[in-house]
Amino acid sequence: MKAVILVGGEATRLHPLTYNIPKAMVPVLNTPFLEHVVHYLSKHQIKDIILAQSHLHSLQSYFGDGSHIGVKLSYVVEDAPLGTAGAVKNAEKYLHETFLVLNGDIFTDLDITAMIVSHLERKPKATIALTPVDDPTSYGLIETNAQGRVTRFLEKPKWSQVTTNMINAGTYLLEPDVLNYIPPQANFSFERGLFPLLLEQGKPIYACPSSAYWIDMGTPEKYLQLHKDLLTGKGSQYGFTSGDEVLIGDQSYIHPTAQIKGPTLIGNNCTIGQKVKLKGPVVIGSGCTILEDAVIEESIIWRNVRLEQHVSLKNSIVADNCHLNASSLIEDSVLGSNVTVASGCKLEPGSRISPGTIVEPKTDS
Q: HSE on the CB side for 211, CA within 13 Å?
């Protein structure tokens, strides 16, 4: 079976992290997000994968044909934004039998194998994975009958319209003839276009509800939450089960006086100086230097970041090549790549710092 991953375009909700890299390449536990998705599909014996992209980003230079990770990758690029269904229509030449579609910003351990079995038994035109959420008003709500057949779609309902907390989980099994309902080279969505059209015409659509782990990592807050989840046991396949593990990469040096409380992941070629305190959940990317008496708590640091003496970093995300100078204080903030924070600076909680910015201390007027 083939799979189409909707890589999508500019991830504005993840700014300032995605000014310089596509959302698919944002690191999760020091590995590009998309690589996790590819391994997830491979685990379910889906190894023929099409990446539907809005732009030709750096994906092909990183993944190539996929052979080095045991899959076959094809790339389809849109000349203009085509929406979720339009992007799949754009890959129609590859799709001649039942196929899988995934939204490219969802991290899940949904049992795709079981979903495929259910789809092949019922033989609908589409099967849609459902997941429960606390607040369904931000998503696409789906109502079903007792047999699991979809009876109604409602996009981003008001609370007064909510009848279920089961939402569209962004994973679909489709029969190839549904592509005939999608206009070519047009902006067309599954949620507001194809699925309501199939329902209106009486075509069978079934739901596949699941309580498996699921998160839309499309905001900095959700991105942080994903890491906290994986580091505290929801990602046991990554080596974190009890919440206190400390994993250290190759060629990294940890000073004997450093205090590290898990869960913590330290990448390759890092230096952790004397009396540094790491209070998990913490992820530090490759090539980072953390100097003496720095404190990092519940934060994600990407690659080649330098923290000078007495820096305090809490509940924040720091992208590649940032430099946090001595005694700076960063809390509840997101720093894009190549940001420099001057000595003694204290960022306001909730700060979003664009790439390349030099943050200077505020002066009294």
A: 0
pLDDT at 69 over 90: yes
Query: Chain-wide mean pLDDT for the chain?
Result: 92
DSSP structure string for 287-312: T-EE-TT-EEES-EE-SS-EE-TT-E
Question: What is the rounded distance in angstroms from the CA atom of residue 259 to the CA atom of residue 129?
Answer: 43
Q: Give 249-258's long-range contacts (Cβ < 8 A, gap of 24+).
A: 249/30, 249/286, 255/292
pLDDT of residue 163: 85
Q: What count of Cα atoms within 13 Å lies in the side-chain half-sphere of residue 121? A: 8
Residues contacting 85, CB < 8 A, separation 6+: 182, 188, 189, 190, 193, 194
Q: Quick one: average pLDDT of 29-37?
A: 94
Query: CA 123 to CA 93: how far, in whole Å?
Result: 22
Tokens of 1: 């079976």
The reported pTM is: 0.92
Q: Is the dihedral of CA 191, 197, 200, 206 positive or negative?
A: negative
Q: How far apart are CA 263 and CA 242, in angstroms?
A: 8
**What is the rounded CA–CA span in Å between residue 189 and residue 279?**
43
Q: Which residue is associated with the tokens 């990469």?
A: 249
Average pLDDT, integer, range 153-178: 90
Q: What share of the chain is helix, strand, coil (3-state, %, to 5)?
A: 25, 30, 45
- Can you give 168-208 as a three-state secondary structure string? EEEEEEECHHHHHHCCCCCCCCHHHHHHHHHHHCCCCEEEE
Predicted confidence band of residue 155 (pLDDT cuts 50, 70, 90): confident
SS3 285: coil
Give the DSSP letter string of 108-166.
E---HHHHHHHHHHH--SEEEEEEE-S-GGGSEEEEE-TTSBEEEEEES--GGG---SE
Strand partners, 27: 32
Residue 245 has pLDDT above 60, yes or no: yes
d(CA 140, CA 150): 13
CA angle 111, 115, 118 (to 5 degrees): 145
The rounded distance, in Å, linking the Cα atoms of 282 and 115 is: 34
Does the bond joining 204 to the residue before it have cis omega, within 30 degrees of 0? no
